[in-house]
Design brief:
230 residues; alpha/beta; Rossmann fold; 5-stranded parallel sheet; 13% strand; globular
Length: 230
């Protein structure tokens, strides 16, 4: 089995991406990040998902992006709510954008891939139903892949050709959910909310942030019940 690095946040997209990699016969090395995000509860989902899929190794990298700030996910800024219902805001990159996040995440993944002799990195970015982040676009992924093959010893010596795999990039959220359901993904294990709230001593989704709204719309359009929130 060929090894592959899977960026695993614990959400719908990353979990579906990992299920696809598993179905394609890759040996899974899951990579998650504790970067000071408000929704750190997603890491518990990532742990449960990695255990369910019996990954070869699940690595959680810890660093504090709150020291940098610049995002509602890593500072005291409020997470916007009901934004997707506002036509005037829909094309504005929201304050939940974390500066250079995917570039940072992919750099860790690239370093690990080179170390374990893997040429494949899976990331669950999506350019259809997403919040407008610039580091989810196909042109960004292509540029990063080109850079990866210029900047590593393995590629310069001709021993590896790195591929940034984005199996979900052209799918709607409902198509992603349908695909994952076909592959047996248990979405009740996943987490999407950017601004979780406590209820009866447990964290529950706010149901109003971009990520919650996109998730809800995806399940509704797929005609599938979301057992996490119902």
């Amino acid at each position: 089995m060929k090894p592959a690095i899977i960026l695993l946040s614990g959400g719908v997209d990353s979990t579906t991406s990992m299920a696809i990699a598993k179905a394609e016969g890759f040996e899974i090395y899951a990579l998650s990040f504790d970067y000071g995000q408000k929704h750190g509860v997603e890491l518990e989902s990532a742990r449960r998902i990695a255990a369910k899929y019996e990954v070869k190794k699940h690595l959680i990298i810890r660093f504090d992006m709150r020291e940098i700030g610049g995002s509602a996910l890593t500072s005291d800024m409020e997470v916007p709510k009901e934004r997707l219902d506002n036509a005037a805001e829909i094309n504005i990159i929201p304050v939940t954008y974390v500066p250079a996040r995917n570039t940072i995440f992919l750099s860790f993944a690239l370093a690990w891939a080179e170390t374990i002799n893997s040429e494949d990195i899976f990331i669950g970015v999506n350019a259809v139903d997403y919040s407008g982040y610039p580091d989810c676009r196909p042109e960004y992924i292509k540029a990063y892949e080109d850079m990866a093959n210029l900047a590593t010893k393995a590629s310069v010596e001709g021993r590896a050709m790195f591929h940034i795999r984005t199996p979900l990039i052209n799918l709607t959220k409902s198509e992603i959910i349908k695909k994952g359901t076909e592959l047996g993904v248990d979405y009740s294990l996943t987490w999407s909310c950017y601004d979780p709230v406590q209820k009866n001593g447990q964290y529950v989704p706010c149901l109003r942030c971009d990520s919650c709204l996109l998730r809800a719309r995806g399940f509704e359009e797929a005609g599938i019940k979301d057992s996490l929130v119902t």
